[in-house]
Amino acid sequence: MKQISGGVTAPIGFTAGGIRCGVKKGLADGNQPVVSSMTDYLSGKKDLAMILSEQECTAAAMYTMNRVKAAPLYITMEHLEDGVAKGIIANSGNANACAPQGHENAKKMCEAAAAATGLKPSDFVVASTGVIGQTLNIAAIEAGVPVLAGQLKKEGGSDDAAHAIMTTDTEKKEIAVTTVIGGKTVTIGAIAKGSGMIHPNMGTMLCFVTTDCAITHEMLQDALHEIVPRTFNRVTVDGDTSTNDMCVVLANGMAGNPLIEWKDDSYTLFVQALHHVCEYLAKCIAGDGEGATRLVTCRVWQARSEESAERLAKAVVGSPLVKAAMFGADANWGRVLCAMGYSKAPFRPEYVDVKFASDLGEILVCQKGAGVDFDEEKAKNILSRDSVVIDVCLHEGDWEASCWGCDLTYDYVKINGDYRT
């Protein structure tokens, strides 16, 4: 496996693009577009993205577990009932969730994309992200889609699309990898967004994955169901599960590899590559949590089961007290054990060892469930890095799991205190 550039346009047959059509600026402007020239479309914060394949793709998706779901999810579910698609249309700045004319506007987005590309509305996945409960400026989107369709490109298209789906994200989230399957080079590319309202019940975010691998819908769906629980579902930023979570994979088969229709060696290679892509993006989302200054990983190992290890690790990275301690680079390991204790996962506290680690080294702070003498200054230096690890050894079994989160900072409250206004 090799990591390359290009994101969602790295696989054969895919183009993408992103423009500013005015959704972000014009939330309260009724249904009037707020752009008037090509310069307006191509400047400012992008808010409309499209990804398109030359050939029909097998498609698979997973969605939020929140009972309140945004309109685009229902339209996408309907369009993917046959397991195929050719493109994705997505906006940021407005979630189109719990919004007036939500379903109608989600359909209009697909209709606009179809009219601009000569395809059918059902060929498109549709997604939205942003403020909940406000009417989507569909006129701005309808005016922007033809411009966007004319801007789709191979080089730089993924970068534009990645920026166009960002909300409170501070950096784009993009990756591409190649691997060899059946003697052919297969490429997987992806972009994602996610910063706040992030808690694992799907992967609370938007993630669009493209691949030129030849694979059946059934195998693609199985691969996604296998990978999401071990990647995106192990991320938490703030404990809030979004209404708009979606992870979609489009596979157009243009790499020319033998069709993957069984769980054989080729399937295993594909799953490994897709897992790498999703885990990379999961860490990007965690590290770019709203107001965050560092990525926090909790690794729980020598556990009784993978499920219990995951539950324990998730409780630790999700604890507001642990997150606050990470912000202050405070080696307050008691908060780690406290979070483990209310996770409802089985473990023996008197067996637990805890270390803090980063690129500056590691330090043991708890052994067999009790504190040990350690150098507070060294611990603080270790925890002051951009990426830190809470390493928990249970001494009870052979299973392990890692979950990802971030620290809790003053800026998180500032960002969310006036997010809507």
TrEMBL record:
The keyword Iron does not apply. Keywords: Acyltransferase, Amino-acid biosynthesis, Arginine biosynthesis, Autocatalytic cleavage, Cytoplasm, Multifunctional enzyme, Transferase. InterPro entries: Arg_biosynth_ArgJ, ArgJ-like_dom_sf, ArgJ_beta_C. It catalyses: L-glutamate + acetyl-CoA = N-acetyl-L-glutamate + CoA + H(+); N(2)-acetyl-L-ornithine + L-glutamate = N-acetyl-L-glutamate + L-ornithine. Substrate binds at T167, K193, T204, E290, N416, T421. SUPFAM superfamilies: DmpA/ArgJ-like (SSF56266). Its EC number is 2.3.1.35, 2.3.1.1. It holds the Pfam family ArgJ. One of its GO terms (molecular function) is L-glutamate N-acetyltransferase activity. The active site is at T204. It is found in: Cytoplasm. It comes from the Bacteria. The record marks G203, T204 as: Cleavage. GO terms for cellular component: cytoplasm. The record marks T129, G130 as: Involved in the stabilization of negative charge on the oxyanion by the formation of the oxyanion hole. Pathway: Amino-acid biosynthesis; L-arginine biosynthesis; N(2)-acetyl-L-ornithine from L-glutamate: step 1/4; Amino-acid biosynthesis; L-arginine biosynthesis; L-ornithine and N-acetyl-L-glutamate from L-glutamate and N(2)-acetyl-L-ornithine (cyclic): step 1/1. GO terms for biological process: L-arginine biosynthetic process; ornithine biosynthetic process. Catalyzes two activities which are involved in the cyclic version of arginine biosynthesis: the synthesis of N-acetylglutamate from glutamate and acetyl-CoA as the acetyl donor, and of ornithine by transacetylation between N(2)-acetylornithine and glutamate. HAMAP family: ArgJ. Belongs to the ArgJ family. Heterotetramer of two alpha and two beta chains. This is Arginine biosynthesis bifunctional protein ArgJ.
